[in-house]
Structures are given as structure tokens and as C-alpha cells.
Amino acid sequence: MTMRRITLFVMSTVAALVLLFSYRTSTGATLPGTETAAAAPGVVPDVTMTPAASPGTSSKTRQVRATTVNGTVAQTRWGPVQVQVTIVDKKITDIRALQHPTGNSRDERINADALPQLRQQVLEAQSTRIDGVSGATVTSGGYRRSLQAALDAAHFG
User: Fold this and answer.
1) Helix (H) or strand (E) run with residue 144 in it
2) For residue range 91-132, what is the model confidence (pLDDT) as tens digits?
3) pTM of the model
């Protein structure tokens, strides 16, 4: 009878260990609503040329090339953040968020307020030296990291 109990105990322990080690945790998984595909980091091919007046002459125009660059995806606590920056004549002329945390309605509200402020701060500072947005600290940090990667890829600054 004792041998039967020992065998039952060992088999139960092995079964419990197998179940324990085969359990998939959520570590490393994406949050619901953040499954958007990332744009490839680096310079975006752009053949569009923008005419600009040459200094001193109004009849001749020179071609100014706009460089558009995607930053890397910054994985934050609340989800991925990725920006795309457009540079014309060594000036940041546009920046937009390609990805931002969208896991729940709170994320949506925070980012609806924070992303336009972050954009304005970057356009004014012309760099990653921005204040960020109170209440959106995690998104602000991811925004800065992705922006810095984009500026580095564009050899800006």
C-alpha cells in the first residue's frame, strides 16, 4: 500500500510540474489594442522636391529636399511609441506619431491631449530637449527615444 501512495505522489508531482512549466504567462505579450504594425525605422524613400525661392532672386527657384525618417519603436510600460519626423533645410517641419499606447480609453484620452503638445514642443525646440507632458510621462519618454532615433538616422543636429 505504501508503494502505491509513493507512486501516486510522484506522478501527481510530475503532472503538476508539467502543467506549471507549460503555462504561458503574459510577460512579453502585447497589450490589447497595441497590435499595430510598426513602420520600418530609418529614412523613408521620398522623391518629392519642394520648390523654394533662392536668396536674392525671385524668378529662379531651387529644389529643397524633404527628408522623412521613422524612429525606432520605443517599447514603453503602456505600449509602443513610434514617431515620424520630416526635415526640410535642416529644420524639423513636421512630426507625427505612427504608434502610441491605445490599450484602453484612459490611454486614448491621455494621448489625445499629450501628442499634440509633444509635437508642438519638438517643433519649437528643434530637438529632443523637450519638457514632456505631465500625466503622460511614459509616452513622453517613448516619444523622445523614438524621435532621437529618427534624428540620428537623418544625421540631424
Assistant:
1) helix 137-153
2) 999 999 999 988 888 889 999 999 999 999 999 999 989 999
3) 0.65
